[in-house]
Task: structure prediction
Amino acid sequence: MKTPGRSKPAPDDLLIAGARELGIRLGAEQIGAFRLYLEEVLRWSERMNITALTTPDDIIREGFLDSLACLALIPNDARHILDVGSGAGFPALPLAIVRDDLDFTLVEASRKKVTFLKHIARSLGLRHVRVWYGRAEAMAGGLLAAEAYDVALARAVAPLPDQAALVLSFLRPGGVFLAQVGSGAAPEEALDRLAAIGYQAAGERRVPSWKGGGLGHQVLAYRRRRRPGTEECFT
Result:
């Protein structure tokens, strides 16, 4: 006689348990928003390349939960968040679902993905989210004002120092760049380049290994140095 295997957790349960592990308690409305978001990612992925994440479990773990891991490193006084290369909306949209007090600007160079992002923001009623089509470097001084953002996000759009350099001019002095990276330590050369262009380390968060075994991803925080003569302040 076979011993019944452990049943696979439902998507909602996986999300709730993972968020709790991150210290986040989701309300019923937020859980419903994530459920709709998941359904739309899967539906749109049937006809276009929205994300490399293709299963509900991977979308929840590596899309939603990895994004929510950034929450602990957002400074208490932050209000304006920039997400460059938003793709399917990670990490900005999961953060927007749980933080309606923050203002999010998403920049994406694919028209199809911009259409998807606007659809999701509209469907979820995220009025504090705006989505712009184009490349961030081409928007400098126009749609994207210099030193206008408290936090900048960029998920694997380029090597770490290149991502940091891309968003530097958009961060206010003292603003924070949050980088989602792998489980290993950043190369010394990359850290030297970050320091050379005007950043200093401001914190890190290890993301749980959702599938068990080994180390999970990391979220690294780098603060844009303040101008000479101003006080450094870390949260």
About this structure: The first helix runs from residue 11 to 21. The longest strand covers residues 171-181.
